[in-house]
Design goal:
- With 463 residues, this protein is of the alpha/beta class.
- Helix content is 30%, strand content 24%.
- A hairpin with a 2-residue loop joins strand 4 (128-131) and strand 5 (134-138).
- It binds ligand NA7.
């Protein structure tokens, strides 16, 4: 018999969540159509299929992070005996951007081939609901509107950066949507927002030799372990990233010389101030892209800019589902694919923060083991022991089940990913301390943690 609908499944959004869903459904034999469309950012940036992670998130961020680490390594190489003649090392920003963009283009290409192989149809257009089973979209030329019907719909349109509601913000500022393909060298950059996106951008800009300043409205890295967050901010400040604390931006104006004058206000002191930057980067959070979907036509319930779903990802309309960043109330632990977006979170911590553990279990019931550590590779370039810190938050009784592990130090993502599996398997302090360390790594220091916070002993090593 003829199917009632054109497709078994229409997926709106070709990012990590949408693509995973579309491909899986096609593997199961469903007839699948996936819409993916990127509205240009206010600065005019556009990109291809793959969503935030591939195009303007995790992937380019990791590449720029690597570029900045390499710059740091060249400086350290001198201490290790390399003759690096040009002491005034500067990156070729345009070449870096080109390399990063070429990689992204290749991923876009592979994604399209993969969809074709898996028989997922792909339409590069913005799909919107006409009714609960009908999606309407404009053809490539934009001249014609077409409709398709679907048995099931999955909404996976993700989000885009927010802009503050102040003069000049949209016209003169950029966001993480733009920085990875930015034509011009960023130069002196004001990063507004101290979430992980802001801090990551500030870190790689600093490593590449630009001068970022971070504007913090309240605290850095809200929601993360406080001690780790403050330590990270102190480390960044020590490495030359200034923080403008308890400050909000008021306006951005272009000066006659082309640079940007930013006026701001310190909410604690009441003082007004201003400074001049080459680039202003907003990293003040992200919003869900519900507005173009015509959700009321389908009857899908929303909460602000996000979609409300039940435990099975179903929206208020049973045959319409939502996954990824567009889902309300589950920012951190939506599908596994989205976890990739939390690189910094994973670089720093797995499990509970010390605050959460105290709140849930009571201060008397938890033990915190911690220590600074000087990895072997820190000695020759004389890097500070302050740049490597480990902390385990555990139950105080029995074998001391570990509730959270926190780490700041080299290759933190790799270290913490390994321990994440151990934590999921019910790691205890007893097991951790009886684990043989792989020498000489920094991760092995977790097997040697011996100082409790409760003891008040200095966690700094003697040498
Ligand atoms: P976050 O983690 O939401 O952080 C936003 C930061 O920007 C945070 O430090 C905020 O300070 C600050 N903020 C928010 N609004 C303003 C305004 N209007 N002015 C100045 N500063 C502001 O967002 P990210 O951009 O890091 O992106 C992470 C998201 O990506 C995450 O939510 C996931 O959904 C995916 P606050 O602490 O609120 O005072």
């Amino acid at each position: 018999s003829k199917p009632r609908h054109d497709y078994d499944l229409v997926v709106l959004g070709g990012g990590s969540a949408g693509l995973a869903c579309a491909k899986e459904a096609a593997d199961c034999g469903a007839r699948v159509l996936c819409f993916d469309f990127v509205k240009p950012s206010p600065a005019g940036t556009r990109w291809g299929i793959g969503g935030t992670c591939v195009n303007v998130g995790c992937i380019p961020k990791k590449l720029m992070h690597q570029a900045s680490l390499l710059g740091e390594a060249v400086h350290e190489a001198v201490a290790y005996g390399w003759n690096v003649n040009d002491q005034d090392l500067r990156p070729d920003w345009r070449k870096l951007v080109r390399s990063v963009q070429n990689h992204i283009k290749s991923v876009n290409w592979v994604t399209r081939v993969d969809l074709r192989d898996k028989k997922v149809e792909y339409v590069n257009s913005l799909g919107a609901f006409l009714d609960p089973h009908t999606i309407e979209y404009a053809t490539r030329s934009g001249l014609e509107r077409r409709q398709v019907t679907a048995e099931h719909v999955v909404v996976a349109v993700g989000g885009r950066p927010r802009y503050p509601d102040i003069p000049g913000a949209v016209e003169l500022g950029i966001t993480s949507d733009d920085i990875f393909s930015y034509e011009r060298e960023p130069g002196r950059t004001l990063v507004v927002g101290a979430g992980y996106v802001g801090l990551e951008c500030a870190c790689f800009l600093k490593g590449l030799g630009y001068e970022p300043t971070v504007m913090v409205r309240s605290i850095v890295l809200r929601g993360f372990d406080r001690q780790m967050s403050e330590l990270l901010a102190a480390m960044m400040a020590e490495r030359g990233v200034p923080f403008l604390g308890t400050t909000i931006p008021r306006s951005v104006e272009r000066q006659a010389d082309g640079r940007l004058l930013v006026r701001y206000h310190n909410t604690a002191t009441g003082a007004d101030g201003s400074d001049v930057f080459d680039t202003v980067l907003w990293a003040i959070g992200r919003r869900g892209l519900v507005e173009d979907l015509h959700l009321p036509a389908a009857g899908v319930r929303t909460h602000g800019d996000k979609i409300v779903v039940d435990a099975a990802e179903a929206t208020s309309v049973p045959h319409i589902f939502a996954v990824g960043d567009i889902v309300y109330g589950r920012p951190e632990l939506t599908p596994v694919a989205i976890l990739a977006g939390r690189l910094l979170a994973r670089r720093l911590c797995v499990g509970m923060s010390e605050e959460t553990a105290i709140e849930l279990r009571g201060a008397d019931n938890i033990e915190v083991l911690h220590g600074y550590y000087k990895p072997t590779e820190f000695f020759i370039p004389q890097k500070s022991v302050r740049h490597c810190y480990l902390k385990a938050v555990a139950e105080i009784s029995g074998d001391q089940k570990i509730l959270g592990l926190h780490y700041i130090g080299p290759v933190a993502g790799e270290v913490i990913q390994g321990f994440a599996a151990a934590l999921k398997s019910g790691l205890t302090v007893k097991t951790l301390l009886s684990t043989v360390g792989i020498h000489p790594t920094t991760a092995e220091e977790f097997t040697r943690l011996s100082i409790t916070k409760r003891s008040g002993r200095d966690p700094t090593p003697a040498s």
